[in-house]
Amino acid sequence: MNTTSHDLTPWQHPHHFLDRRDQQRQRRTQWVVGLTFVTMLAEIACGYLTGSMALLADGWHMSTHAAALGLTVFAYRYARLHSGNARFTFGTGKVGALGGYTSALLLALVAALMIGESISRLYRPIAIAYGEALGVTIVGLLVNAVSAWLLHEHEGGHDRRHSRAHGRQHDEHEHAEHEGERGGRDHNLQGAFLHVIADLMTSVLAVVALLGGQYLGWAKLDPLMGIVGAIVILVWARGLLKDTSRTLLDAEEHEELARKITAAIESLPDHKVVDLHIWRLSATAQGCIVSIVSHHPQAIPTYKSLIAAFPGIGHVTVEVNQCACEQAL
Hints:
Alpha-Beta Plaits, Alpha-lytic protease prodomain-like
């Protein structure tokens, strides 16, 4: 059949699964990169001049976060610029997960360096100019708080809007939507947010350490706070590594959604689902491939309309096989 004069668009699969909010997230992250970089320079310089390990660790910690946040911005931009590139079989929706995975590795590296330096300072303490160090640390704390707000406020607004929308839907439909979104967080933004929160936490610990050293004479509190902060960061990094690796390896749990899709198709008389695959395409979309057997197959749009009832399915492929045996399915 000659199809050169026909519009085939209705039968083609689009592969643009990026979140429409990514550009806004990128702009907010760029602001945070600038704030983090300026504060990083001030803290590193002051840490060397005052001898504060907590302040120095916070400054170097922020330097890797500035790089990681820059990576977040790059991932957003790269995914958008290459969203139409045919080399990416199912689009660039997983670039964000790759960015989050890399951010988690950087978090773990920073935590290891903090532990090593803090242990070294426990055995070889140096004099600390507490007053000067405390002033710069408080400035860093405020900058980190603003940065965390810039990233978290955006996510929170999105969640509240979705909560209101879900409240207007049928309970079963709502559960299906939550199932479609499970594990579908923006890992790129999540990685950036964890870096900022890690900065905020180390700033708080640095303030505690400096106050304890200045007013109580607890000099070893400074490196001890560095170790405590590093351990917490390692726990966060491990969690993000698990989430992002599951997405990258298509190892997320979709059992509940698969059960519901199977039940919807097999509600048709004489129909059986013999193979079903669901995987994540991006933070907001999933792909679905289903193989169906029936003595009396129906038109493909019938099956696609059943699957379309479950939000979050962005790419559907249906294989229909006509059963030649006489036994009922």
